[in-house]
Amino acid sequence: MSKTTTKPAVGYIRMSSDQQQDSPVRQRKDVEALAKRLGYRIVRWYEDHGLTGTESSKRKDFQKLLADAKNGSFCAVLLSEQSRMSREDVFDAMVHWKLLRDAGVKIVTCQRGELDFSNLGGVITAIVDQYGAREEAVRLADRSLSGKRLAISQGKKQGGPPYGYDREILDETGRVVRRVGPTEKFRRPIQWASRLVASSDTQAVEAVRTMFEAVAGGASCGAVARQLNRAGVRTMFGKRFNASSVRRTVTNPVYIGTIVAGKKQRRGKFRSLFDDGGIVCEEAHEPLVSRDLFDRTQRMLPRNHKPSKAPTPGRYLLTGVVYLSDGRRLQGGTMSHSDRKVVRRYYTLPPKEFEEHPDEHDRPGFRADTIEQGVLAKLQSFMSDERTKRAIRSEITRRTKKAEANVGRLETQMEALRAKIERATENLALANPEDIPGISKLLAGWRDQEANIKDKLRQARGEGAPSPEALEVIGRLDELLERLSEADHEKLSFAIRQTIKRVTLRRERRHQNGYRVTM
Fold first, then answer.
1. Segment 82-136, tens digit of pLDDT
2. By the 8 A CB rule, do 208 and 224 touch?
3. Which stretches of 217-359 are DSSP H helices?
4. Does residue 2 lie within any of the structural domains?
5. Are residues 414 and 514 in the same domain?
């Protein structure tokens, strides 16, 4: 007699690699057969494709499953095997088990049936299986790393081709069967091979050579990027070049036919090529530039590169609050005048905006001292107004009363809590030995609450204390505002950012060489 399928459940499917084309279909069939056999009705499916089981935080559907479990809409999670849920460390997996158990949701697998945490044997079985899944993940990572090392040693670059290169796909006999561009997706059969060749896009190849020749000749990476952008050359993704993209290109040894991997420390779940000292394979493919040109470029890079200076705190009072009328934010910067003898501060668009809008002839720049003086004058006028002063006094009084009310409420809570602690301490002395751990745990929790309330009391009393001093400052406000320009710039800049949400600047041409600026 077949069981009535009335128990709501969800199915979870995970595959860790895109190459496991049959895995989701196989898992779904196994889970559906399990549901039919045990009398479950699958109300929803959760699937994570191409994601490792060692990092549950990156699996969106799994996180959604855990969140939905608290709603009580299903009573079980069905899996083909326990490792589909997680290949994490045992202690990390236990967090998921506890969450589902507390929500009243069972974990049922085709491999073991229901994970039974109500007895020691079931717990041990789940832990042993989880440990095995974790060890298998480590072995898989080691095999994958070994495969990468072997492939690189044979001249096979990992990942897609870089800018200026295509991939040639070779079959088992070594015959070229296809050429794949840098942005084209193609999954080659595992027994086929690939190699890098100069791109069929001759503009990209020439752009790479131009970058190396220009930098070797003394040009900066930013200047080269602007030169390429003006010529209409784009990156492989159709974007504009910038100094960083040029620098990444001219420092990459792939352009002299060398594949380098593992020379920089990168995060690996278990182990990385860096841990083994990295690997280098020379003459792996066709070079786009000569080694001599590459070496000259590397020698010139440090000379051409001028590290950006850290901005002086408070040097630009309105940093972060100055915008153009079209919504673009301005930043502080200096410009040289009179053959570099005079250096002035300006608010202007960042260099990134210049790269993204190269056709704009008007580069709006605003004298920083003029704009800052205007804003400070506006602040002085606003703060000197009698209505503003009354509003500030009213706010100080309101906050003082609120702080006093908070103090009274917290003191009442503290008295009640101390009475409970005193009674529990007396009971502890008279309690049976088996009750002592429970009472001790309760006392520890109350003492933690007591410490938290003490901190809140200290803060609440601190909020109310400065009010006479604050009122005294308001009384001297006119005098202080007259000396605003003498204030510490760093502190004044912070105060302005707390006070002003946005300063919008508009510039209108008045005559051939003049503008009118409004704030």
1. 888 888 888 888 888 888 988 889 999 988 888 888 888 888 888 888 878 877 7
2. no
3. 221-230, 243-250, 291-304, 351-356
4. no
5. yes
What's 27's domain CATH number? 3.40.50.1390
Does residue 65 sit in the same domain as residue 171?
no
- The type of residue at 114 is E
Is residue 238 left, alpha or beta, with left meaning phi > 0 and alpha meaning psi from -120 to 50? left
pLDDT band, residue 155 (cuts 50/70/90):
low
> Do 219 and 250 touch, CB atoms closer than 8 A?
no
Is residue 157 domain-resident?
Answer: no
From residue 89, alpha-carbon distances to 83, 92, 132, 241 in Å are 11, 5, 10, 43
Structural domain includes residue 477:
yes
Closest by alpha carbon to 162, among 226, 291, 251?
251
Q: The domain containing residue 104 runs over which residues?
A: 7-143
Most confident of 64-68, 374-378, 397-401: 64-68
User: Do 388 and 512 reside in the same domain of the chain?
Assistant: yes
- Asked which of 48-52, 145-149, 197-201, 455-459 is least confident by mean pLDDT, the reply is 145-149
Give every strand in the sheet of 165-170, ordered side by side.
176-180, 165-170, 193-198
Count: domains in the chain? 3
Which stretches of 378-488 are assigned E, i.e. beta strand? none
Domain end marker among 143, 176, 191: 143
| Distance (Å, whole) CA 270 – CA 19 | 21
Claim to verify: residue 188 and residue 292 sit in the same structural domain: yes
Residues 478, 458: one domain? yes
The number of residues in the chain equals 519
Three-state SS letters, 77-121: EEECCHHHHCCCCHHHHHHHHHHHHHCCCEEEECCCEECCCCCHH
